[in-house]
Amino acid sequence: MRSREEIISYARESGIDLIGFTDARLTYENLSVFKHWLDSGRAGEMGWLHRNIEKRFDPRLILDGARTVICIAINYFSSLDPPSSHVSRYVRSHDYHAVLKDKLNKLYIFMKEADSGLVARPFVDSAPIAEKALAQKAGLGWQGKNSLLITQEFGSWVFLGELVINREYPVDNPCPDRCGTCRACIDACPSGAIKEDRTVDARLCISYLTIELKRAFTDLEKGMIKKSRMIFGCDVCQEVCPWNRNTPCTKEPGFIKQHDLSNYTIEKLHSLIHEEFYRLRRHSVLDRVSYEQFTRNLAALDWHS
Ligand code: B12
């Protein structure tokens, strides 16, 4: 079995920025916050979040015999976008699911070489698993007022992933809260989506409306999109966070700018024809939206009430 030190040093060499260990369980409090969030309707139409609730907070239900969760984070901050950008930062990089999954698979192979009985499952947003709560417990950072995992080293510009394993390792201490009295994200959110209890009301979140919501917009939703000027995701609650002021540039080649969508003016976005849109979508998180959603989002920017 590889030691903690060997795992940490292999992870660092393979481009994983932060790594921490925690036991394969979350608290009842996390579960009850999540259930309350669902019951209050804040998940909007993301029906999939209502499924496998117990699994989300107990990785032992996704991997039989799970003992430890190795949590990782990778910085994706690359360069300053032009202020006119209408897409969130993560659109420009290679799809983070693939980048982090690849690192986790390599880490697994490295560990397995020294331990043939090791069983593990890698996750990147790919299973019902409470990634931010686990990462906080593994000491990577804290869940800020905007609900995102904020790290001291890279702010919240990190993607999260986990390797759930059937081996026991010494765990890290949970990270304390460092938001203090700051409420920049709550005040800056263009649509009032960030609630005082550190959760987000997805129904008001521009990221949800432009990516996850599949149907046509109501007039109220069109008004929110128009005000935000965004057509894919939203980073306002991250842009204003003081912890995000000095994030160094990512070292991950996959997260360096892939295409220039962030430089497109509204006129240029309107001229994106079907084929070009699908070309840009390849290997990007843009593939979460169809061409119909994309044009729906764009049309909302010109909406007149
Ligand atoms: C659903 C989802 C969304 C939804 C809902 C967001 C939300 N905040 O809930 C929408 C579509 C809006 C969304 C948007 C974005 N998302 Co998203 N999303 C997820 C997903 C799949 C689940 C999150 C979730 O469970 N939400 C439900 C709420 C209730 O859970 P929670 O926020 O974790 O809340 C917990 C804590 O608040 C805690 N808690 C709160 N109060 C208290 C009190 C006590 C006493 C205790 C003990 C606990 C506690 O308990 C809750 C349950 O654990 C995760 C991946 C994953 N599997 O975890 C990615 C994830 C959170 N998203 C991510 C990203 C990058 C984004 C965007 C930045 C994308 C963009 N540029 O547009 C935005 C950011 C918006 C925002 N401020 O959250 C990253 C965030 C990385 C990070 N640094 O944290 C994740 C982790 C994916 C990843 N693998 O990297 N997302």
Give a concise summary:
This protein is of the alpha+beta class and 305 residues long.
Can you give a write-up of this model?
- This protein is an alpha+beta fold and 305 residues long.
- It has 2 domains: 4-165, no CATH class; 184-246 and 259-300, no CATH class.
- It has helices at residues 4-13, 28-39, 53-56, 96-113, 131-137, 184-188, 206-212, 219-228, 236-239, 266-270, 274-281, 291-301, and strands spanning 18-23, 68-75, 120-123, 142-143, 149-150, 158-165.
- The strands form 2 sheets. A 4-stranded antiparallel beta sheet has the order 1-2-6-3, with helices on both faces. The chain has a two-stranded antiparallel ribbon with strand order 4-5.
- A hairpin with a 5-residue loop joins strand 4 and strand 5 (149-150).
- It is globular.
- The structure holds cobalamin.
- Residues 27, 29-30, 33-34, 37, 88, 90, 124-125, 129-133, 143, 146-149, 156, 158-160, 197-200, 202, 205, 207-208, 212, 233-235, 237 line the site of cobalamin (B12).
